[in-house]
Design a protein that fits this description.
2 helices; Nucleoside Triphosphate Pyrophosphohydrolase; about 40% strand; elongated; mainly beta
């Protein structure tokens, strides 16, 4: 299993019995060519484990017809690149609550209304030596008061207002966000 980039090297021991016989059941290639599996099994005790995509959110917040709220990422992955406000859904948390929480954490803004975008996006998110698969749910949002805009956590990033005609998708670091931004800009002409 040399050269595998997913959690193969991290998941070597069975969580049930501790034996070093915890192996991928089937290895496939991802769209980016990475080798991955969603199912592991222990050949000693028979324990099975399934790796599923992590739910994540993106918030599209327009200040006016031609200005969008972006975040300059302050941490890896893709440190220094542009991103949309959003993040991972916590266990037991609804995705819309996660989006509202993440928008507040990253921008100090309160979402006043939202609607779900009809298309979702998938991403591969490398963190801590493990590549996570995500399913990104996009929300089109409105906020209560733009005067509150600031970072609540500078370690997360810096909120920026960017004119759409100045937004370059190549400056967006995460693949799924870049694909959404590209689609969004294309749909607006």
């Amino acid at each position: 299993m040399n050269g595998l980039a997913y959690p193969f090297k991290k998941l070597m021991y069975c969580p049930a019995c501790g034996a070093p016989t915890f192996k991928p059941k089937k290895i496939d290639k991802s769209p980016t060519g990475q080798l991955k599996t969603k199912q592991f099994g222990c050949t000693t005790c028979g324990f099975e484990f399934f790796r599923n995509a992590a739910a994540s959110t993106m918030a599209v917040i327009m200040k006016d017809e031609d200005t969008i709220l972006m975040i300059r990422r302050a941490r890896e992955p893709a440190k220094g690149t542009l991103d949309l406000p959003g993040g991972f859904v916590d266990p037991g948390e609804r995705s819309e609550i996660a989006m509202i929480r993440e928008v507040y954490e990253e921008t100090n803004l309160h979402v006043s209304s939202y609607e779900v975008h009809p298309k979702t996006y998938c991403n591969e998110y490398l963190f801590g030596g493990v590549l996570y698969d995500t399913l990104d749910i996009v929300y089109i949002c409105r906020v209560k008061n733009w005067d509150d805009l600031r970072s609540n956590d500078p370690e997360e990033g810096e909120p920026l207002l960017i004119k759409l005609d100045e937004l370059d998708p190549k400056e967006v670091g995460l693949d799924s966000v870049r694909r959404f931004v590209t689609d969004f800009l294309h749909s607006r002409g």
